[in-house]
Amino acid sequence: MDNVDDKDTPLTDAADEDLDPDAMDDEEDFEEDDLPDLDLPPLEEFAAQPYLVDVPTVFSASLREERSTEAPATVIVIDKLEIRRRGYSQLVDVLRDLPGFETIENYFSEFGTQVPVRGISGNNKIVVLVDGMRVNPPGGENFPFRRDFSVRFAERVEIVYGSGSTLYGQDAISAVINVVMKKPSDDGKTMEIGGEVGRNSEREIWAWSSKQLNNEVKITTFLQYHDSDLTKLDEEYPAYWQDFSMLPAQKPMPTARAYAPIATITV
């Protein structure tokens, strides 16, 4: 115990000296001129610098290009890298992972998946755009969230939460979704081919091609084939399904899927 006390004594004395008011008074007064000259630019120049992180640009929130952080609404942007990384195939796959969105698979046979947003039900309360062009049914009917809306070749998907009736009409109540498609390449012709398999013998193959004809005209083509061993309503109930012959057979979303691009060709 004596050895412990001997060791503690110098530390205690040193601490007392640091807290001694007389010792503190002997220190030189701090002067602003003692600060080193860092030669920093004015604050206005810092504000004009680009963001240190990649902030996505959106168009849907106010019909003009702006950073998502500056948009007058809650906006989430899912870019092409995240679509590829998460294995999204259809638009419903994207919506399923969004906060505030619910997806009730096969809720209606006529228009597939029901998508409530922040507790507001009704697919007729969501406006869906492709490159800013409205694709909702013209009569205000429910939007058919089915397996025929691929996002494989989307540049990004912009999701604007809340009402957008001022810009998009009275049915833009719960959300506005804008799917911005990839633009054709400027340096020639590009083709991409891929496929996927999943549960219930689900299989799909698709191809995408783009070509620039001249300075003003570009062409993009997308082909997709999808099939599975699940019940096909158009075959099992043809009399009922004839009223919806423009829509593909409903196939429930599998819970497991493997995806692989087969080839990317640039000529």
Structure description:
The structure is a single chain. The protein is of the alpha+beta class. The chain folds into two domains: about 130 residues, Ferric Hydroxamate Uptake Protein, Chain A, domain 1; about 80 residues, no CATH class. It is built from eight helices and 13 strands. A hairpin with a 7-residue loop joins strand 1 and strand 2.
Number of DSSP strands?
13
Query: Low-confidence parts, pLDDT < 50 over ≥5 residues?
Result: 245-267
Instruction: Look at the structure and give the mean pLDDT.
Output: 72
Biggest sheet, strands in spatial order? Answer: 3-8-9-6-7
Q: Helix count, per DSSP?
A: 8
The protein's oligomeric status is single chain
Integer-rounded radius of gyration: 30 Å
- The CATH topology of the largest domain: Ferric Hydroxamate Uptake Protein, Chain A, domain 1
Would you identify the CATH H-level superfamily of the largest domain? TonB-dependent receptor, plug domain
Number of domains: 2
Secondary-structure blueprint:
Layout: H1 2-18, H2 21-25, H3 43-48, E1 57-58, E2 66-67, E3 75-79, H4 80-86, H5 91-96, E4 104-108, E5 112-114, E6 126-130, E7 133-134, E8 154-161, H6 165-168, E9 175-181, E10 190-198, E11 202-212, E12 218-227, H7 233-236, H8 238-241, E13 257-266
Parallel strand pairs: 6-9
Antiparallel strand pairs: 1-2, 3-8, 4-5, 6-7, 8-9, 10-11, 10-13, 11-12
Question: Which labels suit this protein?
Answer:
267 residues, alpha+beta, Ferric Hydroxamate Uptake Protein, Chain A, domain 1, 8 helices, 30% strand
